[in-house]
# Entry
Amino acid sequence: MTKQIFFTAAFLAVSIFSAVAQADKNSDLFIDLKKQDSLFFERGFNQCDLDYLESHITKDLKFYHDQSGFQDKKTFFENTQKYICSNSEQKPIRKIQTKSLEVFPLHNNGKIYGAIQQGIHHFYLREKGKKDLWTSTAKFTHIWILDKEIWKLSEVLSYDHQDPVVEKPVNDIKKLLIDNNVPALGMGIIENGKLTKVEVYGTLDRKTTAPYNTIFKVASLTKSIFALTTLKLIEKGLLGLDEPLHKYWVDPDIKNDKRYKKLTPRIILTHQTGFPNWRYMTETNKLAFEFEPGTKHQYSGEGFEYLRKAIEKKLGKSIEELAKELLFNPLKMSDTHFWWDSELDETRYALNFNKDGEKIKTVKYYEANAAANLLTTVEDYGKFLEYIINGAGLSENLYQEMIKQQVKLKENDFFGLGWEILTDFSNDEFALLHTGKDPGVSTLAMWFPKSKNGYLIFLNGDNVDKLYEELLTKRLYLGNELWNKR
# Structure
């Protein structure tokens, strides 16, 4: 078997485990270390981000491997470059067996200074245009040390390497993707207010393996980004939630209909404008009121575009500039774009496919739209969802306005500021969600303010029902209840 150097985990004598209580899997410590494990191995091992790797290990790293012997930090880096990162055409990949994780805190006079983490992980060989080849499975133990509030890997024990066993195809996500002609799935999990898992399955184009940082088109999930950008402007006093917008913008199609004076950010973010979804879908191909603004809910992308134009006119800045200033830069969402700009890495884009598995022609947009066409990754949008679950830097009053039942749609179904609200979940939970749908695009963002749990699902195909059923009913928080509400 080709020699490979596998990261893993920290070592501590077995006798110590018996003296340390295991961290609860809902605790901040467990979730922090679960997230750190995911980021460390995805970036350091799978993506070979060696700067990130070096900044998250201690100077005196000790690495024990049952097949490759002992390594100090210097040898560890040399072997990583030689065996893990030297050949992009045949790249070793590591994936965690999530349910195997255990965490044990290390205290000094009652204060946590580190933690032991152990579990099982699997290794694969990734080649372009081929399915990842499972090469081995091993157990690991890590010792993580807190260094100026940053978790760093201090000691690693990688042992009990075994050849792979045959995977069971039942309910396997990759099999579901193939069977339903959906090439790729991106999924992000938020637990207790923290992004703990980012997973991408399948291929970009039915040939090339989809990387961790695959770029997906997310359709109407754009609206949630724009809605929070608007609320951040309101928080800064640059816009009023109930401020009339006609002082800054009146669409030429409705200039003779004085009902435009009733349009405000609140009316638009709750989809009560009276506009159709898009004017091009009407017989006249012109924008017009279909009912009195503020009297009922009707989903409208036109409304969000109307608000964008009013904001841009008032502030003299584009939505791209405002979103970067208020969200993308602070949250380090470097892979999120309103349109196909020069910074977009097209080689990572998940092409879109219809229900029969036929590729849909990619339409590239070259101007921002507040309601659609956002391009992003699971990690970037996961950062956004994590941020909004934790208050988004808004005042308590404005945050409560966002999650308030502004307008009723039907029983247990409402709309807040930019988000649909579903009630009547178990555990006294309620959820905010948004979906996105375009040809070859199906997306979902879901979060629960009470428990601070949530998740993202990005799919680049049309035939998605079986995938949603599998994910919601068997894998995601209160997903079975959401599935039953559909």
